[in-house]
Write a structure and sequence with these properties.
This protein has 188 residues and is α+β, with helices and mostly antiparallel strands. It contains four helices and twelve strands, in the order H-H-E-E-E-H-H-E-E-E-E-E-E-E-E-E. It is elongated and about 50 Å long.
Length: 188
Amino acid sequence: MKTKKLFGILILFLSVLCFTSCNKDEEGFSKEEIQQALFDLKGTYHGTVQVAYYHGSDITELQNAIAVSRDSLKFNMSLLPLSELISDETIAERLREIGEVSVMAGYEFLQMDYGAIHFMLYPKDITILGGYGAPPSISLVFAQTFGGDAEVGNNFIMFNISPLELWVNGKKYEDFPRLVYHFRGNYE
């Protein structure tokens, strides 16, 4: 009887050990899996960007948008839709002068299965210097809560990036409209 009980405890212990050692969700992805995902995403994607209010209606759709994926994502983001929503004409004009900024974002891979890659993006904030007789300095702070998906076999990627705050000469612009840029494109 003691042997059966000991054997049962041993089987239970081995089952728990096997289950916990096989659970890769807790550990994340291996270096090789991450390198493979970066390789699978590598390329220049051409597509469109839908600009919309956060939890709201669409504002505009921009054609000929470009995103480049290497070890991180580089997205050329137009400031023109944003400039049209800024009530301060001096700031709106400065955004129109700048025209487009290059947003760099690091990847965090969430899931990779059946040719699909799901990821988070962590964009770096942007500062365009000015001041001292030049136009005002502009800084954009980005939300760190958006990501996207890629279909490797179809050479397709989509993702969201959202400017969260606008700073002008070191002061937060309070009437900043929260927008989301939704990119959809194909590798060519």
